[in-house]
Amino acid sequence: MPRPALPPSRSVRRLALHLAVPAAGLLLLTGCFSGSTGSAQDAAPTAGASAGTGDARIRIAHLQPPRSGFSPLTDDAFKMARWSNIEPLVVLDDNGDAQPLLATAWSQVDPTTWRFEIRQGVTFHDGQPLTTDAVVASLTAAAAASPPPRILDGVQLTAQVDPAAPQEAVLVRTAAADPLLPQRLSSPQLSIMSPAAYPSGGGQVNPVRHGTGPFVLTAVNGTSSATLDRFDGYWGTKAAASGIDASFVPDGTARAAALRTGTADIVEAVPAGQASLLDPALLHEVQMPRTNTLYLNTASGVFADPAARAAARAAVDAQTIVDVVYEGRADVAKGLLGPALPWSADRPQRTQAAAPAGGGNGRVITLGTFTDRAELPEVAVQLQAQLEAAGFVVQQDVREYAQIEADALSGKFDAFILSRATVLDSGDPVAYLASDFSCAGSFNISQFCDPAVDAAIAAASSTPAGPQRRAAVLAAEKLILEADAAVPMLHERVLQGEQPGVTDAARDPRERALVTPSTTVGAASS
């Protein structure tokens, strides 16, 4: 049983919630932060303006726009978590262990049932109280979603109010024993929302004014911006800043310019290629559990042939990509899991097929990636040269992520370059392996299906947390890499930009926290 409820410390709260500009890019940037779009954001305080001494609003330039209208059941939940807007039952500490948040304590009743005690005195942003019924409704909605949140891949989850303590606790069950259920429930995609967020007839979940965090989401301007205000009814430590003005700036050069010119206080993912043009004091390097991987389509096309996959893997020169594209600000991958998970260095040796003498033999392949991460198109250029040197004929298809994801997941590419977080959801890589490399995985870009790998992932999933589970994870990774379903190239280090006056912004490897209750903007960045 975990430790009893504790006051929310700064570190736990952080985890609850990670030079020329083209004319068009500069105009876009100006529009993003000016508040002159004619939207609901016009009513918000001017970005960077102070509503009182020491509580200036925080301006953020984000990497990717929302993909699903800020549905908390999708990856958009991670943006809301980074704003300290929504909260799940538990939060992960630096070691990946579950700590109390909206649940104050929990225990395992039997192999498939866990009991969670719900925090009392919590109010949703719409004024409704947090109840056990609301917790059950949120978890049930997530379990019934189509597709379900990635963290629930392969998990049949149900929730009910504890009949022995209906005002105090809920029972969460899984069809099979799940030793990591508390960690699983830390995912922002399983955050608890007000019952009013869920339309009675089904449909899109509405996050506006329906979370529990220290900042309330008050307005969303499509895929351009969002506005949040301090929630004075928050159950824990009140936010120091009066609000957040978030803009979505996919263009990396424009994000770097926002940092350089002071039009944003915090900037996500400054491109490595822009680092030399910026004041080093503004940049903070975070080693990430994120792997830049070349996924190979194992089900159809050229790479259905294992020999072709071996040729592609042998052709990849990751060190050149690190040096040329990332300017040394990345680590060459030795596996799918990187140095942000130190125990992954203990991986067993693997045996991989030798590349055939003919290499690519003139076969034509389509190589896809997306523009939202500024380095990936450059990685595609390097890879094209490397693969063509090995005898392949490469055709590139590069688009914004929202426009290319469906094609990637349906297997329309021979190869796809993806920057992938490996422990984003539960702090444990098993969910990532199941999602990307199991036969039933919902994010299986490689179209990979191997019963032996499924068995290895299942074995890892059923093993309790600790050294044995880590060894089982590495055993599954070994099988995936020996099949050449994916070629891990490098592990990223994210550059987070912060103006000199910013204090206590989270630098979170899991990309769950960014603005915390203690984050402030000083005079230097107002």
From TrEMBL:
Which GO terms of type biological process are on file? peptide transport
Q: Which Pfam families has this protein been placed in? A: SBP_bac_5
- Region (Disordered) residue spans: 497-526
Give GO cellular component annotations, separated by semicolons.
Answer: ATP-binding cassette (ABC) transporter complex; periplasmic space
* The Solute-binding protein family domain, residue ranges: 99-442
InterPro entries with a match to the protein in the record? Peptide/Ni-bd, SBP_5, SBP_5_dom
Superkingdom, taxonomy of origin: Bacteria
Q: Which GO terms describe its molecular function?
A: peptide transmembrane transporter activity
Q: Which SUPFAM superfamilies match?
A: Periplasmic binding protein-like II
Bias-annotated ranges (Polar residues) = 516-526
How is this protein named in the record? Answer: Peptide/nickel transport system substrate-binding protein
Q: Which organism is it from?
A: Quadrisphaera granulorum
